[in-house]
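#dry-run=false #mode=assembly
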Amino acid sequence: MLSSAQQQHQQPFSFPREYFFPPFFTRQTNLTTHHAQLVKWSALVLAYCRHHRIFKLFLSYSGAVAPIYSSSTTPSKTPTDQQDPSEPGELFNNRKINRRLSLADIREVIDFLRKDGRAEYIYKSNGTTTTNMDTTAAPPPDGGGDVVWIFWRTPEEWAAVIEAWVEETGQRGSVLTLYELTQGEATRGTEFHGLDSDLLQKALATVVKRGKAQIFGQEDSQGVKFF
Amino acid sequence: MFLKNIDLTTALRPSYLPDEDLLFVQDNVGLYEGKYKLPNHQNGQVYLTSHRICYVDKAEPRRHSVAIDLKDVERYEFYAGFLKSSAKITLIPKASKRSSLQSRSPGLGSIPSRSGNGTPITSSQRTDSPYRAPSVEQPSASTATWVCTICSFSNPVPSNFDPSTATAHTPLPPCLACGIKPTLAHVLKATISNATSRQPGGGGSGQPALYTPLPIRPRPLSELSAAQVNTTPPPQAVSDNSTPRPSSDPDASFECPRCTFLNHPSLLSCEICGAPLISHDLPSQLTQSSSSQSGRRTEADSPGPFLNPSLSSISSQGVDSNTAAENVKLSFRGGGDKIFYERLKGSMTQRKWLLHGAPPIPKSSPRSDDSLPTATGTMGNDPSLPAGGGDRTNRRAGIAGLEHRNKTMRRNNELVIGSAFEDLEALMASAKEIVALAENFARQVKTGSGPGGNENAALLAESASQLGLIATKDIVGNSSSGGGDSLYLSELARTLAEFLSDDARGVLKRAGGIMSLVDLWAVFNRARGGVELVSPADFEKAANLWEKLGLPVRLRTFKSGVKVVQGSDRTDEHTVKALLGWLRDLHEIPPDLEGTERAVTWDWRMFGRGVTARDAAERFGWSIGVAEEELEMAEEKGVLCREESIEGLTFWENFIDTGEGKRYKKETESERITRALKESGFL
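#status=ok
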C-alpha cells in the first residue's frame, strides 16, 4: 500500500539552481548576501520537507542530515528511506558537487526559520514532545537540540486544515481517534494523512485552546471531538 | 615675452627640459611686474631650476603659471624686505628681450645703454664720463685669471675655456711664468669665483651704480657661441658679464683691467701685467645701432635721469616707470628668499642652459689617458691632432685589440670618474659626462646579461635620470603655513604623483593600476638610487595629501587597513566591472582543474567558476594582497560571493543574492521596530 507521501515521494524533488552553486554552501560574510542565502536556504528546507513530508529534521553530528519521518506510528516507512540511499542527508549535502553545509550554518538556517515560526527545536528534556522520539529510527544518543520541527505548515495551519475536513465531512460533534485522523481509511488523500502524531497533538492543542475541540482518553488511544 | 606660459605635468608641476634640474621650491610667492602686483599671480609656488624660474599658481595652476628663462635674465637683485613689505628678488631681463617686448616704443630697447652709464658705448656717454668709466669697469672687465700654484703668477684663463663645457680633456695652457700646467679644477674654480665675485656686487653694494656689471650684449647667445669658435679677443668668452670696453677716444688712456695701469690706447695688452686690453674697437655696426637707439631713447624717455644712479634704485623708487614695467619681482611672503637667492646665484653662475646646446662630450682617445691626471694641455695636445696617434696605438688586430681597447676604455672611465669627484665644481662641470657614462654602463649591463640584467639596467638608467629631479628636503624652502614640513610633503606628494603617472616608467601600469603603499615606498626609494631616501612617515603623509592637492592618484584604505595607491580615475566600479567581465568570460571556458583528479562537478556554463586571489592577481597583474582586497571589496558590494573549500577561499559571481537581499534592509528595520515594541511591552 502506498501512502500519499509515498506517492509524492516517487517523483524526485527538484532542487533550485542555487543548490548546485558551490558558494551556496559557504556562509557568506556580506550581510546582504548572507541574508539572501538564509532566505534561499530556508525556502529550500521548507520546500524539501514539504515534498518529502518531513516534519522533524534531524541535524546530525557531521552536518549530514537525515530526514525523520513521522514513523513512530508507521514503522513501515523506515524501509522506504533505506530504499532510497541518496535521500538521507541529501538536503544539506550535495554529493554531486561535493559540498555540504556545516552544522553551524545549518543551525543558522534553522534559527532563521525559527524567527519566522517555521521551525522549533525538540528538546529531549521536554517530555511532552519527545515521547515518541525513542522509538524513531536511529537517533544518536546525544540528540538533544538536534531534532527540529520543520513547520512547512504551522500547527495552527494544520488545525485549520483538519477543522475544515471535519466540517466538510460533517463529523462535527463526533469523536475521532487520533489514529483514525492520521492513518484511517477515511482521511486517505487528505493532507494530514500520515501527519506526525506529536505535530497532530500540537495542532489539536491550538484548537482546544480556542475552545473549539476537546481531547479525551489515554496516551495511546486519544480521541478528539470538534464542536 | 619675458614671462612665458609653461606646461605643467600631471602633478601640476612644471615639466622640465631634458637637462633641467630642480634646485629649489618655495611656496607663497607673489609676482610683481615693476611696481605692480600681477593679478592672478599672487600666491603660488616658485620652482627654481637650472634653466628657469617657474611660477605655478596655487588657485589656477593651469591658467596662471609662468616661467622665466634664466638665460633671459640680465641681472637679479635682492631686497631684504622692510617692515611689512616682504623680501623680493628682482629679475631684470636682457636687452634683446626687452626691446623685442616693447614693440610700441622701440626706443626703450636702449635701456641697457642707460644702465650701462659707465660703459662708453655711445658717444654721448663716453664724453659724459670718460674717466668714470674705467673706475667703474675695473672690477668687472677683468678677465678671469688663475694664480699659478707654483710661482703664484696670475695667468689669464684661455679665451676658449668655457667652465660649463670644460672637461679633463680640455687642453689647458701652462703657466706663463714657470710653465707648469694647472689642474682643471684649479682653473675652473678661478673662473667660477671670478664670475661670482662680480655678480653679487651689482645688487648688494652700497653704490650699486659703480659696481653694476654692464653687460651690453645685444645678441648674447650667438655672440658667446661665436666666441667659443673664434679667436677673437680672448677674455670675452670667459664670462658673459665681462663687457667690451671700447674707448675709441684716442686721447683717453686705457686702464688695464687687472693692474689698473693706464696703457696707451693703441696697446693690445697691458704693459705691466700683460693682461689683454679688450674691446678696443667695437664693431661699427653695434656702435651705430646703440647710438641711434640712444638718440631715440632721449625722446621716449624722460630726459632727467639720463645718468641714472642704477637700475635697482630706479625700479625700487619707481622713477622710471618703463623699466619698472620690465622687471619681474618675486615677493617671498613665506620666507625662503635667502636660499632662493643663493641658489639662483649658483645657477646663474653655472649657466646650465648653455650645456644644452653644447657639443657632445669629446670621445676620449686612449692616448690621452697618459696625460690625463695632470690636466692635459700643451699646444701639441690640441684635440684635433692626436687622432692619428690614437688610431695607431689602437690598431691591434683580433681579440687582443678588442681586449686592449676595453682595457683602455675602462682606465679612461676610471680617470674621468676619479677626476670628477676631485672637486665639487669639477663634478658639476663634468656632470654631463658622468651621466653619459652612467648611461653607457647601463647599456653595457643591458647587453651583457640576460633578463636579470635588464632590470638592473633599467634601475641604473632610472637612477641616472633621477639625479636631482626629485624634491629633497634641502631643495624645498620653509613653509609659511605652520609646520615646516608641509611644503616638503606637498612637493613629495607631487613628485610621487609624477613618478606614478609617468608613462615611461609605468610604475602603476606594471602593477595593474594599483599597488600597495608599501610596495610604492620601496620602488620609489629604490628609484632614488639610495640617496635622499624618504622616511615611511613622510611618505604616508605625502600620500595623504594627494586628494587635497587634486593630483591624479589617490590613496585608498581597504577594510583591513591596507593602503593602496591607485589612479584617481580607477574607481571601485571600474574594478568591479573588470572582475565581473572576467568572471563572465569564465562561463565560456571550462575550468581547468589541473592536477586534481576531480571532475568539474558544477554547471560551469551557468556559474562559471570560483577564482582565488592568486587567479585575480595573475589576471590583472595585481599583487596578491591587493587582489584579495579587491575581491573582498567586490564581495562587500554584493557582486561576488565566497566559497571556502579545501582549495581555499574562492570567489564567485553572486548567484545567491538574486533580489532577496534587497528586502534585507527593510526587514531589519521592521524587525527592529517589533523588537523595540516587544521590549517596551506592547507586544
